[in-house]
Write a structure and sequence with these properties.
With 480 residues, the chain is mainly alpha-helical. Helix content is 57%, strand content 4%. The chain is built from 15 helices and four strands. The protein has a two-stranded antiparallel sheet with strand order 1-2. A two-stranded antiparallel sheet has the order 3-4. Strand 3 and strand 4 form a beta hairpin. Helix 9 packs across helix 13 (386-424). The radius of gyration is 29 Å and the shape is globular.
Length: 480
Amino acid sequence: MSSAYPVQPSRQYIPHIRSQCEHCNVQVEFPVPSPTPAQGTMLRVRCFKCQSTYTHAFYPTQLPPGYSTTSSSTPPHSSIGSGSTPPPPNARKGRKIGTQEKPLETGYYDLLGVPIDASTDDIKKSYRRLAIKHHPDKNRDDPHAEERFKEIAIAYQTLSDPELRKKYNEFGPKESQPEGGFVDPEEIFGAMFGGDRFAPIIGQISLAKDMKAALQEVDETEGGDDKDVKRDAKGKEILSEEEKARKEEKEKKVTAEKAAARAERVQKLVENLERKLSIFTESATGPYDPDVTNSWRTICQLEAEDLKKESYGVELLQAIGFVYVSKSRHYLATNQTLFGVGGWFHNVQGKYHVFSETVSTLRSAIELKSVFDQIAAAEKAGNLTPEEKKKLEEQAAEKGIQALFKGTKLEIESVLRETCDRVLEDLTISRPKAQMRAVAMQILGESYVAVKKDVDGHPDESEYVRIDTKSSREKDRQRS
């Protein structure tokens, strides 16, 4: 087919990196330097419009699609500018310290696709979307997926923390990175078990804080390796009376802090639950108002269907619902049966559940330890093939997550039992209102317990926080 257009000239393809001048805010691009810079390298770029020089932080994700770091198609560039000649001696140098309005570099903001004045909520939403999109398990054919996923996580950890974000804006990525990396057990637990959506219902999981404290204690211990530690025949550290007193004082302080944190957590959960139940108690004419009861049940079911989409949402809802149902039934049975016999029965049933869950948690921990012992014994014997080691490591990962969830579930149920007792045994309200709270709580709990996992073969987006193992892959194949 003929064309009215003349022959178009062409040139050799040279991959470019997109950027933005921090002085005049115009969009620019510059050739990829050769050899390809390391992650976090600060490049000096000359703006073609205002001719000023600014700094640009390089990250591999900025490379154009299909570009290989070993590509030789890009000619060497000793300096980055608008042309091939080096900048003149009197060129304006880039700023050494940025401000909150004009950060030293915007690499993390660009990585998350947010403006420099983005709110914490906007940063969190963008991170969640990108983490799901770029998770290695969903991009198995992309060799750079894992590195890109880590870069996104680092950018989020920095920009979501006000102090780290301030340092990043002023000094760039190296100054903002905390010593020891960005892995925070509380962040991991928060994302893995329910996320922010469950926080008003279960609060902040204390097991995460305990893990973080344990890791910090290990760091402190390792930092004092040069100290001459005396031990007894069993290998236990020998402490002086002064050291024992300091240790006991520290343990008392930690115990008091944990008790205060739990009390604060329960108080917030009580307020949240009372506020939620008031939708029913302030609208119903009595505990068995049919219209309000049906409306309340619908509200609870819609909330449950929405919450189940979160990571471990179904499992958490069923655990929460069990506590709500058992506590509300116990209260109603105690106040409606002769001598409270029905309440005694529900109390015994609840204690058996706690015992059963405790045994199950301990069993999971023992199974996890057994796998680790197998790995250690096989490595010591030297007869472990790479395939066998990978299989054992997958078992350890899966059992580790199971043990963590069961421990978390045990903690959540304990906190919620106390929360429910406070809500139902509130001395500032009348017995009829307390009874209405119990009815509303039972309906809420039944709606939570009734949720089921989707079986349409499409995994929830929240599954990016799950551990991918052979067993989980087999379950995915069976679903599909």
